[in-house]
Write a structure and sequence with these properties.
The protein is mainly alpha-helical and about 120 residues long. A two-stranded antiparallel sheet has the order 1-2. The chain starts with 15 loop residues before the first helix and ends in a 17-residue tail after the last helix.
Length: about 120
Amino acid sequence: MSNVSAYKLDFKYGNDFRFVDSLIYIFAKTQFNNPLSSRECEIIREYVLRGYSTETKRHIEKTLKMNRKNLNVYNCNLQKRGFLMPHERNQNNKILNPELMKLREFYLNSSEKKIVLVNFIDENK
């Protein structure tokens, strides 16, 4: 039987952006061991909050002050890194990584208390 040790940190946030940004940073570090740049995190945040769509892409272009070509380059890089997946029927569209979809569902869940567990696994044992 293994021992379990827990440490609790309270995370206070004032808006959905800060909450989702934090979830994405934790996700990127734990799932890919590869942190996102702040711009990449902003783009993924918008897809988590709004879904991947032409409307969301327009919103990103406007709020982040970037053109479609730059956004497409970011999307391509995010796909290569595993955050976005190709759409099964439309080559020009992307979908969120299945684990990011679960993170989106977690965010949309109306629970009063939300808990994220991070299991630290020593790869040397």
